[in-house]
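Record type: ASSEMBLY
Status: queued
Input:
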Amino acid sequence: DTGVSQNPRHKITKRGQNVTFRCDPISEHNRLYWYRQTLGQGPEFLTYFQNEAQLEKSRLLSDRFSAERPKGSFSTLEIQRTEQGDSAMYLCASSKGQPNQPQHFGDGTRLSIL
Amino acid sequence: EDQVTQSPEALRLQEGESSSLNCSYTVSGLRGLFWYRQDPGKGPEFLFTLYSAGEEKEKERLKATLTKKESFLHITAPKPEDSATYLCAFQGAQKLVFGQGTRLTINP
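Status: finished
Output:
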């Protein structure tokens, strides 16, 4: 069990630029989740995949956000035309397919918008 | 609306001083209550899952309990390395819904 891996760990970009983050889940986990966390708050759900299918998206996920999980393995989260309010920690988690299995988190990508 | 509230927001204890953190929830159907520990700059680390009222789980100096309306994380004789933010979350249909966390500091 090598854990959930996220890259990059930090990203600094100018407002208006596009950014892409990558998440590699635990190998036997078929569920993958993206969350966003701001300072002093708990993580907020963004979207969820089961294998390669994106099954749920939060209303927090505006049209500028898109997530993919080709072939049901790693996932990418892209933010287009970044805004100041996008500055946050973006967390990825994975879990086994059975109901109510605990989600295991990576250490996140911290995004700073200049 | 389903929600989770944690108290206190911050707690400072002396080493060895036991205490409890509270997580109260209002959900239409609880599928699981999760406790996580989060260190600065890191992702949440899974601690416990509780599924039904009356259930208890223990790990080292930590014990989690669950009633119909709230969960407690009891910390017995804490050490400085227990300092972290403790998050509780309930399982919605698929996603976790988190509280805002309790920031715990243990002074030596």
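Annotation: Residues 24 and 74 of chain A are 5 Å apart (CA to CA).
Annotation: The longest strand of chain A covers residues 88-95.
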